[in-house]
Amino acid sequence: MKAKWYFINSGPCSPSYNMALDEALLDLHSEGKIPPVIRFYEWNPATLSIGYFQSAQKDIDLDAVKAQGLGFVRRPTGGRAVLHEHELTYSIIVSEQYTNMPATVTEAYRVLSEGLLVGFQNLGLDAYFSVPDTEEKRADLKNPKSAVCFDAPSWYELVVEGKKVAGSAQTRQKGVILQHGAILLDLDDEKLLSVFKFSSPEVKERMRRKLPQKAVAINQLTDKTITIPQCITAFRNGFEGALDIELVPYELTAEQLEYVKQLEETKYLTDEWNFRK
Q1: Exposed site from 14, 143, 206, 262, fewest CB < 10 Å?
Q2: Do 158 and 166 contact (CB within 8 A), yes or no?
């Protein structure tokens, strides 16, 4: 018998709702009220999310975010700023004690990201995990130099055709792992660069030149245009196969939705949370 996990496809949601729902699912799972969950979602409006430890004022050009009508939210997970626009976002909520779940963050990340790997392969792309091969690169991971998420390959980063395609981040709270990340369909380099503060035009130009070699979207790699529905099928099947689970569609109860709304209003919609650093 395969383990049954819940599957939620939220579609496009507001930034505050997306983060509140991820946290609510973590809480519900920690209380034993729901099994592990895999959730897919999108963003409306397009949103810049920053990592838990980032400084909005220091790293982000908030006027540019506003001028372009972008949403803005701080994630409960670490990592760097991500522009969520042409993408499918996934989240995985599972107990640290889950059968055969490695104790270390790095190894657990590899196990959970296996579903992404198979998802990319289901779309006909050559995907594999990259492991930093030098001490210098490993040191870079501990001390990231840039605010832009796609600037540094991390441990077991997912690489397709030699370039990073899915930026993921993880947090552990209440004995539960929350891992979420972006599967890029298309990437607007200029828009991404426009929302960051750079110390000089030269630094911005360097980043502009580096981005195409670092971050790549699925539709830059394939002749046929891949859609969100195709991605949902490919990655849903990828997670089922890689984790040896059966995904059961789930809809939250009225009470659970009320809890999400409460988290959204008291946390992810507040300036205190989003701009506190």
Answers
A1: 143
A2: yes
Q: Which helix or strand (DSSP H or E) is residue 11 part of?
A: strand 3-13
Q: CA separation (Å) from 106 to 19, 28, 180?
A: 23, 24, 14
- Structural domains of the chain, ranges and CATH numbers in brackets: 3-274 (3.30.930.10)
Average pLDDT across each block of 10 residues of the chain; the chain has 277 residues. List them in order. Answer: 97 98 98 98 97 91 96 92 93 96 87 93 90 55 44 61 78 95 90 92 90 80 92 98 97 98 98 89
Q: For 120-174, where are the E strands, in sequence order?
A: 127-130, 157-160, 163-173
**CB 244 within 8 Å of CB 2:** yes
Q: How far apart are CA 35 and CA 249, in angstroms?
A: 12
Report, as residue numbers or ranges, the catalytic residues.
Answer: 149
Report which DSSP code applies to 190: H
Please name the residues in contact with 264: beta carbons below 8 A apart, sequence gap of 6 or more. 16, 17, 19, 20
Amino acid at 220: Q
User: Would you tell me the crossing angle of helices 228-243 and 105-122 to the nearest 10 degrees?
Assistant: 130
Residue 181 CB-density burial (10 A; 0-12 exposed, 13-18 middle, 19+ buried): buried
Q: Which two tokens stand for residue 22?
A: 């991820």
